[in-house]
Amino acid sequence: MGNDLKRTALYQWHVDHGGRMVPFAGWEMPVQYPAGPLQEHHATRQIAGLFDIDHMGQIEVRGPQAEAFVNWIVTYDVSQMNLFDAHYALFCYADGGTVDDLFIYRLPDPQVSERDYFFLVINADNRDKDVAWVKAHAGAFDVEVKDISDKTYMLAFQGPKAPEIMNRLTSVALTEVTRFTALQDTIFGDVPVLLGRTGYTGEDGFELFFPVEHALKVWEGILKEGESDVVMSIGLAARDSLRFEPCMPLYGHELSPTISPIEARLSFAVSLHKDFIGRDALLKQKLEKPERVLVGFELIGRGVAREGYPVIYDGNEVGEVSTGMFSPTTSRFVGMAFVPRDIARIGTSIEIQIRNKVVEARIVKRPFYIPAYRR
Amino acid sequence: MKVEPNARYSKEHEWVRKEGDLFVYGITDHAQDQLSDIVYIELPNVGESFSAGEIICVVESVKAAADLYLPIAGEIVEIHEALIDTPEVLNSDPYEEGWIVKFKAADPADWDNLLSPQDYENLVEEE
After folding, report:
1. Residues of chain B with pLDDT > 90: what percent?
2. Does residue B119 sit within a domain?
3. pLDDT tens column, A18-37
4. Closest-CA distance of chain A to residue B31, Å
5. Same domain, yes or no, for A156 and A136?
6. At a CB cut-off of 8 Å and minimum separation 6, what does A108 contact?
7. Which CATH number do you get for residue B97?
8. A334 HSE (CA, 13 A, CB side)
9. Touching check for A43 and chain B: CB below 8 Å?
10. How close, in Å, is residue B50 to chain A by CA atoms?
C-alpha cells in the first residue's frame, strides 16, 4: 500500500483489532473488522455502531457576511437555520452539476457575533476541491474561511441504543437535542465536543467533532460505555450498505459534476427561492423537469446489480446503475439507477445487464429502508 | 486459516478433493475470509464442460463480485443447489457444507499437479 495514503489517529487501533485496511479517498481505512460487514450492518440497525470517519473534512466560515456567503455557495437556504441547527446541502457548479454534498451546522463562535459562524462537513475525496471552491468564492464577502480538517476528529455513533449510551457520557440530557440539531459539551473530563444528532445510516445517533488529540480516548470510551450493549466498531463496507438502504446519495455514485441534485431527487436540500451558484440551471431543470432521474429498483431475476451496469428498457440501454447490492436489512437485491424520466414510475419493468446476462427488475419505491427518525 | 488435508489447491484459492471417480470443488477458507460475507452465487449447469482455468461461476459478497475458476478441465456432474438459498455456508463451512460442484475430470492425473496443502499454506503466507 502506497505511503501517500493518509492514516487517522485510530489507524493502529483498527489494525490491532483486526480491521482490514483498504485505500479509500486517499486514506487507509478499515473496510471491515473480524465480525464482517453483515454483522456490523445488523449491529448498527439493532444496537449501535461506532465509525471512524475522520477522513471527512471540516471547513469553518466566520465573519459579518458568513450567512450571505454560505447562502451564495450552497443550495439550501441557511437563513432559516437557527443556532445549533444542522442541515444537508450541496455545492453546485453554475450548470447545476454537483461539486459536493455537505452538512451545515450553524453554531455560536467566541470570535464573532451570534449568527456569523457556520461549520461545514465535506467528503474526504473532495476536500481539496471543496476548500478551493469555497475560498475561490469568498473574495467578494467579508468572511474568513478555514480548513480545520486536520485538527478536528470526526466519529459517528449510530443506532437505536446510541442516544441512551451517549446520554450517560454527556452532562446535558440528550432528549434536548432533536434530530438535525447539535450541542456543545465536554465529555470524558476534558474533551470539548460538538455533538450533532445527525448521521448517514438511517438510524438515530450522533456525529462527534472534537480535537484530534482525544481520538483514542473518545473512541475507546464510547466502546467501553457500550460494552454491555455489545456496541461494535463498523467499517466502510457496512457504512456503505447502511447509507444505501435509506437511499442516501454518495458522491461519485448518485452525485457528480454531471449529476444535479434535482436529478438525484434532493429537492428538499435545494432552496430555489434564494440566489446561489447553480440556481438558474437547477430552477430551469426543475421547471422543465430533468431528462433523467434517480430511481430505486429491485431485481426479480437472480443476481447482484453493481455500479455501472446498464439499465435496459424495451430492448434499449437507457441508463446506468449508480449503486446496487444486497440489502441486509430487507434481504432484497436492490439498487439505484438513473433512468429517463418518462419510465421512472413505480412498477415499471426494466432489465439490468449483469455481466453476460440480462436480469429482470422492477422500479420500486425509495427508500428501501425508512430512517428510524422518520417513522 | 484452515486447510483441508485431503484436498489439493489452486493459486486462485480453490480446492479440489477426490470422491470416488469424481472430484469435488469449492473455495478455500482464505478465499471466503478475503471475500467476506457472501450473499449470492451463480452456479454453472450440470453437463457444462470447462477447460482448466476457465471461469465456472461467480460469487458476490456484500462489497463485490468475484469469479471462480475450475483449476483442471472437466464436466460438471452435480451442482450444490442449496447454496443458492444459503450462500453464507460458503463462509461458515467452505470445505464441507460449502462445496460448490462435483465434476468429472478430463484427465484425473491433472489433480496431482495442483498445490499440496502445505504448498498452498506457504502461498497464502507469502501473499
Report:
1. 95
2. no
3. 999 999 999 999 999 999 99
4. 14
5. no
6. A83, A114, A117
7. 2.40.50.100
8. 22
9. no
10. 17
**CATH code of the domain in which A122 resides:** 3.30.70.1400
- The pLDDT > 70 percentage for chain B reads 100
Judge whether B47 lies within some domain. yes
Chain B residues interacting with chain A (CB cutoff of 8 angstroms):
36-37, 39-40, 42, 58, 60-65, 84, 91
Q: How many domains does chain B have?
A: 1
Of A219, A244, A269, which residue is a domain's last? A244
Q: Is A248 left (phi over 0), alpha (psi -120 to 50) or beta?
A: beta
A156 and A138: one domain? no
Structure confidence at residue A175 (pLDDT): 86
Kindly state whether residues A185 and A302 are assigned to the same domain: no
With respect to residue A255, please indicate whether it lies within any of the assigned structural domains.
Answer: no
Q: How far is B111 from chain A (nearest CA, A)?
A: 30
Contacts of B62 in chain A (CB under 8 A): 37-38, 41, 237-238, 241, 325-326, 328
Is A335 part of a structural domain of the chain? Answer: yes
As a whole number, mean pLDDT of residues B61-66 equals 90
Domain range for A222 is 11-56+151-244
- In chain B, count H helices and then E strands: 4, 9
Instruction: Provide, as residue numbers in chain B, all residues whose Cβ is less than 8 Å from the Cβ of A326.
Output: 39-40, 60, 62
Residue of B nearest to A38 (CA): B37
Helices (H), chain A: 11-16, 37-46, 66-73, 127-136, 162-167, 215-225, 236-244, 279-288
Q: Which of A223, A244, A265 represents a domain boundary (last residue)?
A: A244
Q: In this structure, what CATH number is given to the domain that contains residue A319?
A: 2.40.30.110
Q: Give a yes or no: residue B120 inside a domain.
A: no
Q: Cβ of A341: how many Cβ atoms within 10 Å?
A: 13
* Chain A residues close to B58, C-beta within 8 Å: 355
- Interface list for A 63-92 with B (CB within 8 A): none
- In this complex, do A38 and B62 lie within 8 Å of one another by their Cβ atoms? yes
Residue A332 sits in the same domain as residue A364: yes
Residue A295 belongs to a domain? yes
d(CA A322, CA A335): 8
Minimal Cα–Cα distance from B17 to chain A, Å?
28
pTM: predicted TM-score of the whole model, two decimal places: 0.94
Cell numbers 450492518 correspond to: A41
For residue A174, the 8-state DSSP code is G
A41 found inside a domain = yes
What integer pLDDT is reported at residue B64 of this predicted model?
87
Does the beta-carbon distance from A326 to B60 stay under 8 Å?
yes
| Angle A131-A136-A138 from CA coordinates, rounded to 5° | 95
The residue in chain A having the minimum alpha-carbon distance to the alpha carbon of residue B32 is: A36
ipTM: 0.87
Asked if pLDDT for residue A1 goes beyond 90, the answer is no
State whether B37 and A36 contact (CB < 8 Å). Answer: yes
Q: What are the phi and psi torsion angles at A101 (to 5°)?
A: -110, 155
**Claim to verify: residue A94 and residue A28 sit in the same structural domain:** no
Say what percent of chain A tops pLDDT 90: 97
